[in-house]
């Protein structure tokens, strides 16, 4: 029987000890640990990788510390546009929603697309209508509000026009991440899920890598499950998540080699910053990132969870 | 200097001689030939691959015979939701729009995203606002109307509930393709572009592979330019366009081997039907499809265009 394991992330970016108070740091460590533990418990009870990543991402969406669901960042217009994606490595079925504002947990809507529609990606009002038909009660976007994200929008509007200035590269300071989970269950199945509020001050209608299969999320029992966070556009152009699978499948690289190649070489070559979490079919785990920090954690069933925020640190 | 070449497609599907009158067949052959010739002329004059695929897809969108722009299929609600994508193999820059209803030529909006935004994918109203800011005059969706597509919607509504029946696979009979172009210019640059109206009777909000980098469209000077048409969801889950590039880059396959592997093995394994057009960095051309037919054509600069519709036929 496979040694089941789950890994999660809560976004990557310019996260340094200097920026994070000890109190805030403790909140992140506690949240990450609890979510890894919930995933471990689910897998230990024989749950599927698909259920484990769904539940982990739902919890990350519910936690206001992270940029997905409650606590999601604001668009330039002061609205929320949420994206999420999930893929089952066993069947290669996938579901995603993009640009939704009235779904409390976009990952649950993505799961409904995977299970109850012949489609992979639904956007905007059509996605919201489908989610409602599937029993997900519509919510007012007010529930996504947090003071911190609102203040970040005011600051971005006042100081950083780069996201709206089409001649300039995206300012990484306006990025506050994405959440995601990957898991391997006892039955040998891999799954991946990703969810995000996007970029603070983003142009309404902008969709990044999170809801795109092969860019921000990919899973295939034959090789690997991957969830990404970072400069979304570069992850889209490099097909970062699927590229890791292809490097393993066609290039014969190990999980470690493939994730390092993508995160430390291919993404930076196009000015892409961020990281990935990945688990291969043998249960190896890799959590590389090329930014200052990445909120992350993982745990094998039966072990204590391991979580980290900065470089060279697992606590 | 590289031998410049362009290839185009006007969709794949259940296209047989029995279905197509000789008069209609002639219309398709004439349209395909003219569009290949326009691309050849542009490349012969030293134009870039990016300009050639933009112009070829713009012409395909303008032609009511094909399911993109004018002549696009209707959603279940009797509306039009158009998607397009373009990628420059020289810079790996890309632009795409999805779910737009007021842009006459979605490929021109995608090109504007590529050139004048830091983003890759814009959807819905946000994409339309951006296109208008970039000088593309908004249009009434009435301009996309053709009697044939309207009749197809009525027939699909009356007889085929499969697109809306979430327990059934997508009925290939409700698919009427996509358009696309790939080109290699004299300077050695590759580019790819894809545009579609999606599926007749589709659920509003459904987005297929066409506007997704790596699924329906991919270009990289290092290996290949690809544009796809077919069962969109399967092309998304298999990353069909990027998979061809990865098989060549990491697996050492030739253009012919890589396109055959994807179109004849990997797509059918997930019940995916359709085809691709692809040109590699040496100017080799492949136009494989696993369906009854694919509207297609290609032409090297200085040669007569070669066009075809059915299997085993180039005229």
From TrEMBL, chains A, B:
<dbReference type="Pfam" id="PF01112">
    <property type="entry name" value="Asparaginase_2"/>
</dbReference>
<feature type="binding site">
    <location>
        <begin position="229"/>
        <end position="232"/>
    </location>
    <ligand>
        <name>substrate</name>
    </ligand>
</feature>
<dbReference type="GO" id="GO:0016811">
    <property type="term" value="F:hydrolase activity, acting on carbon-nitrogen (but not peptide) bonds, in linear amides"/>
</dbReference>
<dbReference type="InterPro" id="IPR000246">
    <property type="entry name" value="Peptidase_T2"/>
</dbReference>
<feature type="site" description="Cleavage; by autolysis">
    <location>
        <begin position="177"/>
        <end position="178"/>
    </location>
</feature>
<feature type="binding site">
    <location>
        <begin position="206"/>
        <end position="209"/>
    </location>
    <ligand>
        <name>substrate</name>
    </ligand>
</feature>
<protein>
    <recommendedName>
        <fullName>Isoaspartyl peptidase</fullName>
    </recommendedName>
</protein>
<keyword id="KW-0645">Protease</keyword>
<dbReference type="InterPro" id="IPR029055">
    <property type="entry name" value="Ntn_hydrolases_N"/>
</dbReference>
<dbReference type="GO" id="GO:0006508">
    <property type="term" value="P:proteolysis"/>
</dbReference>
<dbReference type="GO" id="GO:0008233">
    <property type="term" value="F:peptidase activity"/>
</dbReference>
<feature type="active site" description="Nucleophile">
    <location>
        <position position="178"/>
    </location>
</feature>
<keyword id="KW-0378">Hydrolase</keyword>
<keyword id="KW-0068">Autocatalytic cleavage</keyword>
């Amino acid at each position: 029987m496979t040694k089941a394991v789950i890994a999660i992330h809560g976004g990557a970016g310019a996260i340094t000890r200097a920026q994070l108070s000890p109190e805030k740091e403790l909140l992140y460590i506690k949240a990450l640990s609890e979510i890894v533990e919930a995933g471990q418990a689910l897998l230990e009870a024989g749950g599927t990788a698909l259920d484990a990543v769904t539940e982990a991402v739902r919890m990350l969406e519910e936690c206001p510390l992270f940029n997905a669901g409650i606590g999601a960042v604001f668009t330039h217009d002061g609205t929320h546009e949420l994206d999420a994606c999930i893929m089952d490595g066993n069947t290669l079925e996938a579901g995603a929603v993009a640009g939704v504002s009235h779904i409390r947990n976009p990952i649950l809507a993505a799961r409904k697309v995977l299970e109850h529609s012949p489609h992979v990606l639904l956007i905007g009002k059509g996605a919201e209508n489908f989610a409602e038909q599937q029993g997900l009660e519509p919510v007012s976007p007010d529930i996504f509000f947090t003071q911190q994200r609102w203040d970040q929008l005011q600051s971005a509007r006042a100081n950083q026009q780069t996201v709206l200035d089409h001649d300039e590269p995206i300012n990484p300071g306006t990025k506050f991440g994405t959440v995601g989970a990957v898991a391997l269950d006892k039955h040998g199945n891999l799954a991946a899920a990703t969810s995000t509020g996007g970029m603070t001050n983003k142009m309404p209608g902008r969709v990044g890598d999170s809801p795109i299969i092969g860019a921000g999320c990919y899973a295939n029992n034959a090789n690997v499950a991957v969830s990404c966070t970072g400069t979304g556009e570069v992850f889209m152009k490099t097909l970062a998540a699927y590229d890791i699978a292809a490097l393993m499948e066609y290039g014969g690289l190990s999980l470690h080699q493939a994730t390092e190649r993508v995160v430390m070489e291919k993404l930076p070559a196009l000015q892409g910053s961020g990281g990935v979490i990945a688990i291969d079919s043998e249960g190896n785990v890799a959590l590389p990132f090329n930014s200052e920090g990445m909120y992350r954690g993982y745990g094998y069933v039966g072990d204590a969870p391991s979580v980290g925020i900065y470089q060279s640190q697992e606590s």
